[in-house]
Amino acid sequence: MYLLGIGIVLLLMKYLEIGPVTGWSWWLVLSPFALAVVWWAWADLSGYSKKKAVEKMDQRKADRIERNRVAMGTGTRKGTSKRR
Question: Which residues of the chain fall short of a pLDDT of 50?
């Protein structure tokens, strides 16, 4: 996502002729977009995207279970509340 942001900023600077970017080659200005495509291809092929999605779902599930546990009054698994 950072690469897209950098690419958009460089593209606007080149188009609006702002700063030193005006003298740069279009290949250099557009290179962050190519790097973003390479990053997405690698992330999909390596399983990085799927792994992150699964981690996010697991965290949401754990949070939901914890909220329900607290709402039912059974305490928390992580907490140290002891009744005597």
Answer: 84
